[in-house]
Design brief:
The chain is α+β, with helices and mostly antiparallel strands and 159 residues long. It has helices at 11-14, 62-74, 130-138, 144-158; strands spanning 17-26, 33-38, 49-50, 53-55, 83-91, 103-110, 124-128. Strands 1, 2, 3, 4, 5, 6 and 7 form a 7-stranded mixed beta sheet that branches. A hairpin with a 6-residue loop joins strand 1 and strand 2. Helix 3 (130-138) runs antiparallel to helix 4. It binds 8-OXO-guanosine-5'-triphosphate.
């Protein structure tokens, strides 16, 4: 008799969707500001403010994906060595996620970049201080996962 068990769910269906995002901070102390991007209307979470980034594509490391997304979305060049893991958040498939998969959002601190961030058509950018970040979280004008990340992101503005 075989002791091999068949998985109830195919392994590929259970894999979480990996999303990477960057916390770009400019200035120091009271002058410190964090970059947020407003998602274009018509997209999932359209109109909400989030950290720039996107999905990790097959074959990419998370840092490679972040470097690519920041180049595509903001037109800036980031060295992977300047992307430091900061925190993460998870949204369960049971909370209404696309395609019934968990979403894992990896937030990196980006300490340096080349170029000036420019918003893509339909998107917008703003540099927020600690009070601005709190206000967006309290007003729920960020995706739920980002509100969870804000507690850690806030510390970047207080360091
Ligand atoms: N980039 C980004 N996505 C986030 C954040 N928070 C959050 O819930 N998400 C969700 O993560 C999912 C994937 O992000 P995305 O749509 O930016 O990925 P992408 O650029 O590769 O997508 P696309 O090329 O298909 O438009 C979306 O459902 C988005 O709403 C965040 O802070 N940054």
């Amino acid at each position: 008799m075989s002791s091999t068990l068949s998985p109830v769910v195919p392994a590929s269906a259970a894999l979480p969707l990996l999303v990477v995002a960057g916390a770009l901070v400019r200035g120091e102390s009271a002058e410190a500001r964090l970059l947020l991007q407003q998602r274009p209307l018509g997209k999932h979470h359209g109109g909400l403010w989030e950290f720039p980034g996107g999905k990790v594509e097959p074959g990419e490391t998370p840092a490679e994906a972040l470097v690519r997304e920041l180049a595509e979305e903001l037109g800036i060049a980031v060295d992977p060595a300047d992307c430091v893991p900061l925190t993460f958040a998870v949204r369960s498939a049971h909370e209404g996620l696309a395609a019934g998969r968990d979403l894992v959002l990896l937030l990196y601190r980006c300490a340096a970049w080349q170029g000036t961030p420019v918003a893509e058509p339909g998107a917008a950018l703003q540099w927020v201080d600690g009070a601005g970040l709190r206000a967006l979280a309290v007003e729920a004008t960020m995706p739920p996962l980002d509100i969870a990340l804000c507690i850690t992101a806030q510390k970047l503005l207080e360091a």
